[in-house]
Structure formats: structure tokens, C-alpha cells
Amino acid sequence: MSPLDAPVQAPSSAPEVLGRCRELVRPALAEAVGRLHPWVGEMAAYTFGWCEVGGAPAVAPGGKGVRQALAVLGAEAAGAAGRAGVAGAVAVELVHAFSLLHDDIMDGDATRRRRPTVWKAYGTGPAVLAGDALFALAVETLAVEPGGAGAVRVLSAALTDLVRGQADDLLFAARPWTGAERVSPKEYRAMAEHKTGALLGCAAALGATLGGAPAATVAALDEAGRALGVAFQLVDDVLGIWGDPAVTGKPVHGDLRERKKTFPVLAALAAPGPAARRLAALLDSPGETEAAAELVEELGGRAAALAEARRHTATARAALTAEPLAAGAAGELRCLLDFLVARDL
Amino acid sequence: MSPLDAPVQAPSSAPEVLGRCRELVRPALAEAVGRLHPWVGEMAAYTFGWCEVGGAPAVAPGGKGVRQALAVLGAEAAGAAGRAGVAGAVAVELVHAFSLLHDDIMDGDATRRRRPTVWKAYGTGPAVLAGDALFALAVETLAVEPGGAGAVRVLSAALTDLVRGQADDLLFAARPWTGAERVSPKEYRAMAEHKTGALLGCAAALGATLGGAPAATVAALDEAGRALGVAFQLVDDVLGIWGDPAVTGKPVHGDLRERKKTFPVLAALAAPGPAARRLAALLDSPGETEAAAELVEELGGRAAALAEARRHTATARAALTAEPLAAGAAGELRCLLDFLVARDL
Known about the structure:
The structure is a homodimer. Helix content of chain A is about 70%, strand content about 0%. Chain A is mainly α and about 350 residues long. The first copy, chain A, has a single domain, classed as Farnesyl Diphosphate Synthase. The first copy, chain A, has a two-stranded antiparallel ribbon. In chain A, α1 (about 15-35) packs across α16, α4 (about 85-105) runs antiparallel to α6 (about 125-145) and α12 packs across α14 (about 290-300).
């Protein structure tokens, strides 16, 4: 049989890629969570959608598992087996869960994925503790890996960025809509890169590091993940105002109703002229959400967010061709990129 | 000049040892804290007693600095210069500050060292964030050290223990004074070893690791620090009930007034006979603190705590002679041990 006669393997769809990576990572993630103090372990399992409050098994929707997939694909892109990236995948999923637990406390969010948040279900103190435990477990997971020193460095840089991004995000809420103290779109982008991009970049970089990739490949995958993270956040910002409630599970104009300082709003406020001042006045008044959404769109906020997302998607794409990567994994990384952001642009 | 004619150097007192180590570590600790997000850095500086809320400089009492001293002395005990242990000292002080910040939230404590706790002064969300930032900074501090892989492993094991100890401590509060579900003195000791001992052991072990000590020396210093930590907690438990309020800064019988499940009380409750049942009844009634304190003492709770502390002090002493250590550092470690616990026994 000549190579030309070999059966053509259809490229995997993004849900298939995510599912394959989740299957590969799940046993190690469950094993790690199983090593936690039982009480803390239950809160962790609840966060992952594996159980209800009290411990009864559940099949609640977890996240899409983008971070773990990036770690597995990062290892494969470096020419290693996907399992080489599993410790990195476990670490980033644990860090992601830690950040959700603590961010929900800081933001006062009462529900996540249509269930009570951990602090609502178990109390603030226990939720703080469970987050700490997940954080410690993530570090331990990499620290005990043979050759994990580089991996711990990669993770620790992302943790620092993550906390910095969350600090900026919290402080943005208290700043005015206009004047010298207003939040610029550029500041917002930096916050999103720290808060969301860093961990996605870290995921891909960890996989590559554990897969034995050279520094340039690690850096390229880090850049691709970071850019993907920023693009993802920007698309999320657009959906947070104009998304279909039936799809997003959030109320119409939800982010605007909560007066969140997201990119479309900040870009609209940065437009010159009296309309931007009118928008600021609307945002300072109660209600007026519908009118504000219209004005944000008129002032080009939505278009600016989508353009910025496209720029970051292009950056991610370019990073994936900057260094030689295993073709299959590179294809699956592009497929994820399309699935997560490009299809909406 | 024969060696016998050499001027005799008086051994340093414990406050001198603590002061010398603090001086050595302070610049690196300040530099690390200075790399934090400014808002988070202010909360960290407030925790260390370096500033007031708002950032104005302060000279509020920080801790004694036992952990940083153990790290410096651990390096010196391994025959290295004290500065070899400085990164370890910084990491353990950051972790200690992180744990105080988060524990104060979990325990609802409003004051620490006669000042409002961080969550009281800055809010719960910001205090959660500041703790996370200190945690991340601790890991980063060791991760970027040349040869820091072993050090990160040592720290990460202590972090896991710390969180486990805090989980048990929180759960103890909800358990009854009597019956099958009561907290045994043994469980309490394990909790204290995790919550307090692990980080002190980690401090000494980190110093030794960074100072290039062989594994057996690292293990011996870890054991000494752990045992010191447990002894320190037990002495603290005794002072928490019978300490002089003028010295402890806490009300008479403070821990008993708050119905804290500390070793003396648990040991008293474990005594056979009707008096222990009478004590449990007193503890379940409001007030009655004076009578309960007397009964805990009659039932041998105070003596049992002090005997247990002496056992752990002896363990720490023995660990310090189990492996060859540099004589000067070993002497200073014994001096710290006496200062912190033995003088009260």
C-alpha cells in the first residue's frame, strides 16, 4: 500500500480535541485532588463539577478545559507524547480553579456555571482555604516532577501575573468613567493579558517545557497562549454586552447592567467628542442600560473590541508558525484558536 | 598567641541572634515586597509593620522573626554563610504573612499585634488577594534561585501541611467536647505540627538546602524546627489560658473565654472520671470561664501541655546533635530554642 492509499484521517474538531485532552488529564487531576484534606477535596471536586455540596456525585458542567488542552498540545507540539504535559495540565487546572474560587469572593459573585459559588455554598473562610490548598497543590504537582524546576519557574511567573491582573481589575472598578483617572483601553488590555492571558500562555509553555522543547519554542507557545487569552477575553466582553442570553446564560447587556469596565465601553469612552461624555453620564445614572449599549456601539466600542481581538488572534497564529512545531499538534492548536475566538470575529 | 589566649567571644543572646538575622534578611524582604503591585505591596508592608493604612511609614511591632532566623541559621549550620539562606528566609516570612492574612479572615480575628487585621483595614477581598500575592511571591523567590528546585520542593511540602493544619483547626471548632467525635490531644498535636511546626521546620531545612547541606542534615534541621514549632504552640496554649495579660496582651483566660480547643483543655477532657464530664458541661455553658480554667488545671491539662512541650523540646535538642553542624550556628539554634520555649518549661 503506497502512502497515498493510506486512509485519510479527518482533522479533529475542537470539541474532540478538548475531549481527548480532558480524558488524558482527568485521572491525574482526580488523583491530585484526592490527595487533599477530604473537606478541602470536596470543595475542589464541587468546583470541577464532580460533586454536589455534601459530596454526592454530580455531572455538573465543568469548564471547557482549554488550559489543560493547551498543556497537552504544548507537549505534543514539542514532539513529545501528550502525557508528558499532563503534570502541567493538572497544575494549570488547579491554578484556574484556585483563581475562580478567590475571584468569586473578591467580586462577590454568587453563582458560577448556574450553581452557587464555593463561598456561597461553603462559606467565605472555607473558600479561601480551598483556594489556598489548590494553589499549594499546583506548585507541589510541578515541584515533584523530575526536571520540574523550569516548570515551576514558568508557573510562578504566571501566578505573579495573575495576581497583578486581579489587583488591577479590582482597582478599575473604583475609578471614574472620565477624566485623567479613567481606565484606558491599553490598561485594560494589559490587565486582561495578566489576568487571563498569562495562565493560557503558561499552560502551553508548561507543556512544551515538560515535553523538552527548546526555549524559543516555549516562548512561542507562551506568546500564542497569551494572545489567545486576550482575544478570548475581548470576545467575552462583546458577548457580555451583546451576547444572546440563551447562549451566554447571562441577562441581556449583563456586563453593562453591572457597570463593568470592559474593553468595548472603555474604547467608546476614549472616542473624542460630546457623545463619549453623554455615555459617561448615562453610565453614572441608574438604569439607562439599553441606551448605554446603543451608544457604546455607535461610538465604535464593539467594533474596536472585535478589531483588537482579531489582532491578538493574528498574533497567536503568527506565534504558532514562528518555530517548528509538530504538525498535528500545531493544527489542533489552530483548531482550538478558531473554536474559541476566530469563529466569532 | 595560643588558641587558649584568644579572646573569648560571649555567646549571643536570642534577641541578638534574632536581630542579626533580621538585619541580614530585611533588604531582600523589602526588595521582594517592592516588586508587588503597589496596592498589594502596601497591604504586605502593613502586615510586616512597616507602614500604616494609606502607606505612611510606621514602626509597628512585626513578629519576632523566628522563621527567617531559622533559615539563616540553617544555612550557617550547614557551613555556608548566612546570606546563602536569605532567599529561604524571605520565602518563609512571605508564607508566614500569607497565612496570617488568610487565617485572620477564616477565624474572623479583628486585631493582630494591637492593630486592625488586614481584612478589617482593607476589606476581605483585598486581604484574600494580598495573601495570594505573598504566596506567589514566596514561590517565585525560590523558583528563580540557582538550584532552587530542591528548595521549592521543601517549601511546597510545608505549604501542603500548612493548609491541612488550618483545615483541621477550622473543623475542630465545630466538633463536640465529648463523645466519639471529640478532638483527641493526639489529633491536636498533629494539627499543630502541620499548622505551626511545618513552616518552622521548612525554614531551617530551606536554609540548609540552600547552604548545600546533605539530605540527612536537612532532615535533622527540619525535625528540629518542627518540634520547636509544636513546643512553641503548646507553650502558647498554656499562656493563652494562664498567661499574664500584661505580657500576652490578651484578656485573662482568653483562649478559654473563646472556647478554643487547645491542648490543655483537650488533655483535661481526656482524663477519666466525672470531673471531665463536669468540665465539658461548663464549657457548654456561657460564662463559667474561671471555673473551667481551674478544672482544666485540676484535671492535669496544664501539666500535660507542659510535659508535651518538654518532650518536643527534647526532640528538637536531640535533632540538633544527630548530624554534624557548624558549632556556632548550632549554639545559636539552641539559644533560640531556650528563648522561645525552654525558659517557660
